[in-house]
Design brief:
The protein is mostly beta strands and 129 residues long. It contains 1 helix and 8 strands.
């Protein structure tokens, strides 16, 4: 009887520790970190551009930086709102660049719509991680 009671107590303790695990869908999750890594451009629907080799760094939990996106160097800072991205005001050589993006909920593909000097572009980035 004592062994059975000890086993029940051990199972109860194990179950109570596993129930304290962080939920994958927690609102406190740092979504910006899910974008960090190396990306490549698979397809451009509007114009031919060279955006291969894009690196995404986390600035904080609400912002990411795309390095070498559309040959903009380190100037492409996106605000992160879940799976939506908003390109913050960027200017390159006097030209205004604007845009937005949407990732799938696996955060391994991002579609970005952007405007550079009045020309519209669409890029599909795929994670290499």
């Amino acid at each position: 009887m004592k062994k059975t009671l000890n086993r029940i107590l051990i199972i109860f303790m194990i179950a109570s520790f596993t129930s304290c695990a962080v939920d994958d869908n927690s609102l406190d999750e740092d979504i910006a970190s899910l974008y960090v890594g190396s990306w490549t451009n698979n397809y451009n629907l509007a114009k031919t551009t060279d955006v291969n080799g894009v690196i995404i760094d986390r600035i904080n939990e609400n912002e990411i930086r795309m390095i070498n996106f559309f040959n903009l160097g380190k100037g492409s800072v996106f605000k992160v709102e879940g799976n939506d991205l908003i390109l913050k005001n960027t200017e390159v050589d006097g030209y205004k660049v604007s845009g937005s993006g949407t990732s799938n909920y696996s955060y391994d593909e991002v579609t970005i719509y952007y405007s550079f000097d009045g020309d519209e572009y669409v890029a599909l980035l795929t994670s290499l991680n």
